[in-house]
Amino acid sequence: MVDPDVLRRFSAGAVRYDAHAHAQRLSAVDLLAYTGASMRPALNGGIVDTGGEPAPERGQVTNSIEPAPKRGIFDTGGEPAPNRGRAFKILEPGCGTGLYTRMLLDAFRGASVFGVDISEAMVRVAKRRIDDPRVRFAVADAEEIATGSFDLVTSNAAFQWFLSLPRTLARMASLLPGGGLLTFSFFGPETYAELDAALRASALRRGAHDGARVAAAAFHSREEISDALSAVFPRWDVAERRYHQEFPTLADLLRSIRYTGTRGGAPGEAWSPGKLARVEDAYRERSGGIKATYQVFLCRGVTGGGQGRPGAAAGRDAPGFVAAARGAER
Predict the structure, then answer these.
(1) What does pTM read for this prediction?
(2) How many Å apart are CA 106 and CA 204, to the nearest integer?
(3) Considering its fold, how many domains does the chain have in total?
(4) Which domain holds residue 228?
(5) Which one of 21, 80, 158, 319 has the fewest CB atoms closer than 10 angstroms to its CB?
(6) Can you give the CATH number for the domain in which 312 is found?
(7) Can you point out the beta strands (E) in the chain?
């Protein structure tokens, strides 16, 4: 079950979410490319195409995926997958407003996508924006999905909100029989590091030695995610990306945080005009402006049986995923 406070914030900001989802859009593009690289039959039994070198079965890969010319992937020649065999089935937990869903539909031309989100408001927006017979949406707690069989489970910027990552990973693995693949992006604890430092600096100036921390500082670390993956999946991997964004004022940054739910402020903390001015002064002094860093982990786990469903991915190359994703971003 997702934290009720998180659910309230996402539901309240559903209509404005996409307009402020800068980092989430970038992570969706990278996650789609990362998913494509994971599904490609890898060299020497590895699970990642690293440009000629096999990837370790247990390890970490950083920035191994490069952009490619725009073209589609999993093109079934205009026919839906059921006419060419069993449909490739994708589960998207935490689908939100459908930002990543649209990219999946564009990339996996013959697949069916089942998008699930606990926020009814988010699902309402997704249904309004995406009218495609290949997708269906449901309002449900993704952590509690107990039945179903999928070829791919993939989720953008949602897993950090689940209350129990180990339990969620075990549940997702149970939905991937016969070599299925799980991929997800996960915001890390160094997200909004500049704001975190400004909050503490402002508190110190007022004589408080234990200043407020950004709530994102409590997100799981890379090591914690790796431990959770290794306990469930025989093959797993974690990569890291960092995205940067600048804002005219601290108020603009806080507004973005409010509508995307990425937790830049301390839980339940009020921002008075005086505090806003003090923290902004500390922010600009330390960072030279209102700059935000987003730390994002790209994660994957492969259940027993190999690299996802090789039959579905055979002959398809990873660059197409990147192209499809970047086309969707535009």
Answers:
(1) 0.76
(2) 50
(3) 1
(4) 4-189+218-242+296-329
(5) 80
(6) 3.40.50.150
(7) 58-60, 88-93, 111-117, 135-139, 152-155, 181-187, 235-247, 290-302
